[in-house]
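Bumping my old thread because nobody answered last time. Still need a sequence for this structure:
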């Protein structure tokens, strides 16, 4: 059985190690969290950090922060939007739950873990009375498609192509809101990211 729990200082190192299994090269290693940075996420916003544990090992992690609506609307690049890997831009008064990362170990994908983490995110939006959830998703299938990032995203939206993160997040119920160019140093995604949101029904 796989349990979802708040990330603790004991599981912070496992969460950092998981990043390395989930984002292999050419993804830049300097964009991955260290154990100390995960500990900093817990200090800043404990309610927003989750891990999935299988027999005591971290097989999934989910990192979140709060952003003001103004900061969300600015659609900055990832590093700037989050204020570096320690999430210095987390704003305790923010009304937008910003999805910083969700990572599932390759051997545990396709078993509904991302969906379970997303349910935690949606519950948090409701519990904290936030306006909405927002994230910006990689498009790692874009570069090998030979298409522009826009054309690739449109084909994924139309169900004509699969992208390993965008397809699951659309199935989970996130709404596409366009692309940010230069979102991240991410060759596979042609450096673009797809804006995705979810709003609660009240
Ligand atoms: C993207 C990722 C988080 C998905 O996690 P996951 O636990 O495998 O996803 P789930 O099993 O919860 O799947 C959610 C839905 O997407 C579908 N899905 C998952 N992977 C899919 C794929 N590669 N192709 C098509 N559909 C897929 C599932 O069937 C499910 O749909 P359903 O519930 O309607 O049947 C995981 O692949 C991952 O960690 N990737 C590497 C890290 C990453 O890219 N993170 C996101 C950064 S933007």
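Sorry it took so long. Here it is:
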């Amino acid at each position: 059985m796989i349990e979802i729990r708040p990330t603790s200082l004991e599981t912070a190192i496992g969460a950092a190690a998981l990043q390395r299994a989930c984002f292999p090269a050419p993804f830049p290693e300097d964009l991955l969290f260290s154990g100390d940075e995960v500990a900093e996420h817990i200090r800043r916003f404990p309610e927003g950090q989750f891990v999935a544990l299988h027999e005591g090992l971290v097989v999934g992690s989910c990192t979140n922060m709060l952003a003001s609506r103004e900061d969300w609307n600015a659609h900055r690049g990832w590093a700037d939007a989050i204020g570096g890997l320690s999430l210095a831009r987390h704003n305790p008064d923010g009304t937008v739950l910003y999805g910083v990362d969700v990572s599932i170990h390759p051997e545990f994908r396709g078993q509904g873990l991302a969906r379970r983490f997303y349910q935690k995110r949606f519950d948090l939006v409701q519990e904290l009375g936030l306006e909405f959830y927002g994230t910006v998703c990689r498009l790692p299938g874009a570069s090998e498609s030979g298409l522009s990032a826009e054309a690739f995203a449109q084909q994924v939206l139309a169900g004509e192509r699969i992208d390993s993160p965008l397809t699951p997040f659309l199935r989970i119920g996130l709404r596409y809101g366009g692309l940010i160019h230069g979102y991240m140093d991410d060759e596979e995604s042609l450096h673009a990211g797809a804006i995705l949101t979810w709003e609660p029904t009240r």
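The pocket of coenzyme A is lined by residues 22, 102-104, 109-115, 137-138, 162, 164-165, 167-168, 171-172 (CB under 6 Å). Let me know if any region looks off to you.
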